[in-house]
Automatic annotation (TrEMBL):
It is found in: Membrane. This is Solute carrier family 8 member B1. It comes from the Eukaryota. Residues 88-217, 381-531 form the Sodium/calcium exchanger membrane region domain. One of its GO terms (biological process) is intracellular calcium ion homeostasis. It comes from Sander lucioperca (Pike-perch). Pfam families: Na_Ca_ex. GO terms for cellular component: membrane. Its main location: membrane. The chain crosses the membrane at residues 72-91, 98-119, 139-162, 174-193, 205-223, 317-337, 349-367, 379-396, 402-424, 445-472, 484-507, 514-533. PANTHER family: MITOCHONDRIAL SODIUM_CALCIUM EXCHANGER PROTEIN, NA+/CA2+ K+ INDEPENDENT EXCHANGER.
Length: 541
C-alpha cells in the first residue's frame, strides 16, 4: 500500500470497514472460519458478547482452549449445565422461606400454593426465561425452554404418574388448569406470530395469572362451603415423612443447652449422622460431592422453617447471615457489576455493606439468646428469599450463556437447546417429586402440580421477561421465531393439551396406564419430529 499518509488513511479505512463488517455478522458464522481466526472473530463481533454471565464461554472455547479440545469443551459445558441446574434445584432454603413468608402473612394454603410455593417450584424456569429475554438472540431459548418444559411435564411426567398410580382425577381443577394453560399457550403463540408485544399486552399477560389465582381462591371457597355444609371431615394434609419421622423419633426427652460455638458448628454441618448410616453408598458419594456447596449455602442463606418448634433459629449463624447474605447479593447481582463499584470513586460499596452487616449482626447478637427466636425472626425468611432469588438468577444466567455457546459450537438453534437440555434440567426435580408423591398414594396432588405449576412458569417467565426488557430498552419486545421448529413446538404443546382436554372427560376422568403410555409416546414422536426438523430432514418446500 505504500508508506505515505494516503497509505495510512487507506489502512485506517480498511480497519474501519473490517470493524463494521464484524458488527453486522452473526456469531453463528464462527464455525465457518479456520481455527486461527475464530478467537479474533468472537472478540470483535458484538453478537458474540456475553454480558449477562460471569464468564464469556465463547472466548473460553475459542481463545483459551486449543482447537483439538473442542469435544472436551462440549462435554465439560454439558456437565456444567447439569451442575448449575442442580444448583438451582437443591437450594434448601427457597421453599421453607417462602412457606414462612406465607405463614407470616396469614395466607391460605390455596393462595400460598399458587403464588409463593409456585414460585419456589418454578424458580429455575422463571429465572432462566428472564435471563434469556435479556438478549434478543436468546429469546428463542426462553420460548423453547418454557414450551419444552410444558410439553415434557404434561406428557412424560403426567404419563408417568398415571403409570405408577392409576386414579380418578378431580374434574373441575383439572379442566380449570388445562383451560388456563391453553389460554397462556395461545397468547404466547399469538405474540410469536406477530413478532412483537406491547406494554399493555404484557401487563394483560401477567393479569391472566391474577385471574387464575382468583379462580383458584373462589373455587376453594365454594368447595369448602359445600364440604362444610355436608359435614365432611377434612382430608389430612400430606407432609414429607422423612424429616418429621426423624425429628419425632430422635427428639430428646429433656431439653439441653448448647454453647454458641457448638450451635454454629452443628448448624454448618449438612450431614445427618443417623441418615448417613442407613443410606446407600451412592447417596453417600453424592452427599460428599454436594457438601462443600451446601456448607457455602448454609453460610450465606438464612432459613426459617415454620414446621420446626424453634423455626430453625440459630443465633450465631443467623447473626453471621446479616454479614454474608448482603455481601453475596452485592457480589452476584447482575453478574457482579456492583462488586467493584466505588461510592463517589473512593469508598467500595462492598465494604460499606460489610460494615452495615457487622453493625446489625452485633446488635442482634447482643439482644437475643440462643434458645428463644426474636419477634422479627420472620424477616430472616425474607432475607433468605432475596439471597436465594439472586443466586438462582445468577445460575440461570450462566445456564443461558453456556447453552448459547453450545448452540454456536454445535450449530444448533436456541429453541432446540431450550426444549431439550434446559427444559429437562429445570424439570427433573419436579419430575422426581411428582412421581414420588404419586407412589406414596397422592396422585391427585402430583397431577395438579404437573398442570398448575407450569401455568405460573409460562405466564411469569414470559411476562416478567418481557416487562423487564421493556423497562431496560424503553421499547417493544421483538420475537424472532427460529423457523419451523418454533411452530412445531407450539403446535405440539397445544395439541397435547387439547387431546388431554378431550380424552380425560371421555374416560370419565380416570387416568389409567393406557393414557400414561399414550402421553409418553406422544412426547417421543414430538421429540423425533423436532430433532428431524432441526437437522433439516423436515422442512417447508
Amino acid at each position: 500500500y505504500g508508506t505515505g499518509p494516503g497509505a495510512v488513511s487507506q489502512c485506517g479505512n480498511i480497519f474501519f470497514s473490517i470493524s463494521e463488517s464484524f458488527r453486522s455478522l452473526h456469531c453463528d458464522l464462527v464455525m465457518n472460519l479456520s481455527a486461527a481466526d475464530r478467537c479474533a472473530f468472537v472478540k470483535n463481533t458484538p453478537d458474540c458478547k456475553m454480558e449477562d454471565g460471569f464468564i464469556n464461554y465463547l472466548q473460553v472455547a475459542f481463545c483459551l482452549l486449543p482447537p483439538n479440545l473442542t469435544p472436551l469443551t462440549i462435554t465439560l459445558c454439558v456437565r456444567c449445565v447439569t451442575l448449575i441446574s442442580f444448583f438451582s434445584l437443591f437450594l434448601p432454603s427457597f421453599c421453607p422461606n417462602l412457606s414462612a413468608i406465607s405463614t407470616s402473612l396469614h395466607l391460605t394454603h390455596n393462595v400460598a400454593g399458587v403464588t409463593f410455593l409456585a414460585l419456589g417450584n418454578g424458580a429455575p424456569d422463571v429465572f432462566s426465561a428472564m435471563a434469556a429475554f435479556s438478549h434478543p438472540h436468546t429469546a428463542g431459548l426462553a420460548v423453547g425452554a418454557l414450551f419444552g418444559a410444558g410439553i415434557f411435564v404434561t406428557t412424560v411426567v403426567a404419563g408417568s404418574v398415571a403409570l405408577v398410580k392409576p386414579f380418578a382425577v378431580a374434574s373441575r381443577p383439572f379442566l380449570r388448569d388445562v383451560i388456563f394453560y391453553m389460554a397462556a399457550v395461545f397468547w404466547t403463540f399469538v405474540m410469536l406470530y406477530r413478532g412483537t408485544t406491547t406494554l399493555g399486552e404484557t401487563l394483560g399477560y401477567l393479569g391472566l395469572y391474577v385471574v387464575y389465582v382468583l379462580t383458584v381462591i373462589i373455587s376453594a371457597y365454594i368447595y369448602n362451603r359445600q364440604k362444610h355444609s355436608m359435614n365432611v371431615a377434612p382430608i389430612p394434609e400430606f407432609h414429607s415423612s422423612d424429616s418429621s419421622d426423624d425429628e419425632s423419633e430422635y427428639r430428646p426427652l429433656l431439653p439441653y443447652s448448647e454453647s454458641t460455638i457448638k450451635i454454629l458448628l452443628s448448624s454448618l454441618n449438612p450431614v445427618d449422622n443417623r441418615k448417613w448410616r442407613r443410606k446407600s453408598w451412592s447417596w453417600r458419594v453424592l452427599k460428599v460431592l454436594k457438601t462443600p456447596l451446601e456448607v457455602l449455602l448454609l453460610l450465606c442463606i438464612p432459613v426459617v422453617d415454620p414446621d420446626k418448634e424453634d423455626r430453625n433459629w440459630r443465633r450465631p449463624l443467623n447473626c453471621l447471615h446479616l454479614i454474608t447474605a448482603p455481601l453475596v447479593c452485592a457480589l452476584t447481582f447482575q453478574s457482579g457489576i456492583y462488586g467493584d463499584y466505588m461510592i463517589q470513586g473512593q469508598f467500595p460499596l462492598w465494604l460499606l455493606i460489610f460494615l452495615l452487616g457487622l453493625f446489625l449482626s452485633a446488635i442482634v447478637f447482643c439482644t437475643t439468646t440462643n434458645e428463644c427466636p426474636p419477634k422479627y425472626h420472620p424477616l430472616f425468611a425474607l432475607l433468605g428469599f432475596v439471597v436465594s432469588a439472586v443466586l438462582i438468577s445468577a445460575a440461570a444466567s450462566e445456564v443461558v450463556s453456556l447453552l448459547h455457546m453450545l448452540g454456536v459450537v454445535l450449530s444448533l438453534s436456541n429453541t432446540v437447546l431450550g426444549l431439550t437440555l434446559l427444559a429437562w434440567g429445570n424439570s427433573i426435580g419436579d419430575s422426581f417429586s411428582d412421581i414420588t408423591i404419586a407412589r406414596q398414594g397422592y396422585p391427585r396432588m402430583a397431577i395438579s402440580a404437573c398442570f398448575g405449576g407450569i401455568i405460573f412458569n409460562m405466564l411469569f417467565g414470559v411476562g416478567l421477561g418481557c416487562l423487564l426488557q421493556m423497562v431496560q430498552t424503553h421499547s417493544y419486545v421483538q420475537f424472532e421465531a427460529e423457523g419451523l421448529l418454533t411452530w412445531i413446538l407450539a403446535a405440539s404443546l397445544g395439541l397435547s393439551l387439547v387431546l388431554s382436554f378431550v380424552i380425560v372427560p371421555l374416560c370419565r376422568f380416570h387416568l389409567g396406564r393406557a393414557y400414561g403410555i399414550f402421553l409418553i409416546v406422544f412426547y417421543a414422536i414430538f421429540l423425533l419430529i423436532a430433532l428431524l426438523t432441526e437437522f433439516g430432514k423436515i422442512h417447508i418446500v
